[in-house]
Recover the amino acids of this structure.
């Protein structure tokens, strides 16, 4: 895991909030970044934040999924709710006659059962057969977005810190140069102490003392 990976994880979390969390700030940013049809605005950005968002937008879209309940929020054609791809992505067709691409999933549910007979296209029959096997929940709550890369379905940047360790150290001298010593503490991503140490470093400058105590901590990691 590198700092670049961590930066990408933080940007992905930022995009997730823009797309799915409700607040005035996110509503403002969503109006700036997202078109009315839900697609990302590709041009007209000059800020570094906007450029970062642009880089990870597709990563978030590829890994977000809908969990269907009442079908009021998920788009039947454009959202990923029935499989790994949206219906349009699976069909690989953009010119489908007489179809409303803004239709919600609820429009294909009647009396707790799937109602797919109104769409009469041969290309769709193989996908509808799979959808008919999906059990329709009866909880009456809103559809929910989830993050497919997490077993819990929630997006957490803590995943980006797994396997990391943080070293805090300090070196000093009595005089410069002079008798030197230093100490340090190593913690994991949960702030649990893995190792602590202190060392006499002999006679050296304060600059050398700082570096020697860092090197001692790095050796402890190895």
């Amino acid at each position: 895991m590198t700092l670049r990976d961590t930066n990408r994880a933080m940007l992905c979390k930022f995009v997730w909030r823009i797309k799915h969390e409700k607040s005035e700030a996110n509503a403002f940013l969503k109006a700036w970044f997202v078109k009315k049809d839900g697609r990302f605005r590709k041009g007209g950005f000059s800020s570094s934040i906007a450029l970062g968002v642009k880089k990870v937008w597709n990563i978030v879209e590829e890994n977000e999924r809908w969990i269907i309940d009442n079908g009021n929020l998920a788009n039947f054609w454009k959202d990923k709710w029935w499989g790994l791809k949206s219906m349009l992505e699976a069909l690989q067709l953009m010119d489908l006659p007489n179809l409303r691409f803004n239709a919600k999933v609820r429009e294909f549910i009647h009396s707790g059962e799937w109602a797919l007979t109104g769409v009469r296209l041969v290309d769709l029959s193989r996908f509808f057969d799979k959808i008919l096997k999906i059990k329709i929940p009866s909880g009456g709550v809103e559809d929910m977005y989830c993050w497919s890369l997490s077993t819990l379905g929630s997006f957490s940047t803590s995943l980006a810190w797994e396997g990391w360790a943080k070293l805090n150290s300090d070196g000093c001298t009595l005089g410069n140069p002079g008798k030197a010593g230093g100490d340090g503490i190593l913690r994991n991503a949960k702030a649990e102490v893995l190792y602590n140490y202190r060392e006499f470093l002999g006679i050296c400058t304060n600059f050398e003392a700082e570096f020697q105590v860092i090197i001692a901590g790095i050796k402890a990691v190895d």
